[in-house]
Amino acid sequence: MPPQLQSQNQSGPRVLQGDLSTLSPALREFVEANVTLCQPDSLHICDGSDEENRAILTQLEEQGMIKKLAKYENCWLARTDPRDVARVESKTVIVTREQRDTVPTPQDGGVSQLGRWMSLEEFDKAMNQRFPGC
Question: Are 119 and 97 in contact (CB under 8 A)?
């Protein structure tokens, strides 16, 4: 079980909106595990309300991340940053219990061109080593 989120008075993230106690045990465990991995400064738990949706859209528009399109109701334009790099097959990691479920193994025993396979355990270890605090 992942470590518990610390209260706002300790070194854990501030909960800006929402209440962790309202989440299901499985969802709370997921949030706690990813807070441990990513180490965010704050946490916003979405409630899915129309008010929250409007506030988020307004904030994104003010930051220039999205643009309202007038032709259609509730239609927004969001562009990808041109500096973003597209996915590269040779850098793609596919995680499953069994390698044979996903990545075909070349007959000559070489490296697959469709991606690299990792076990769940290897992936967890690599994530924790490579991305402490994201």
Answer: yes
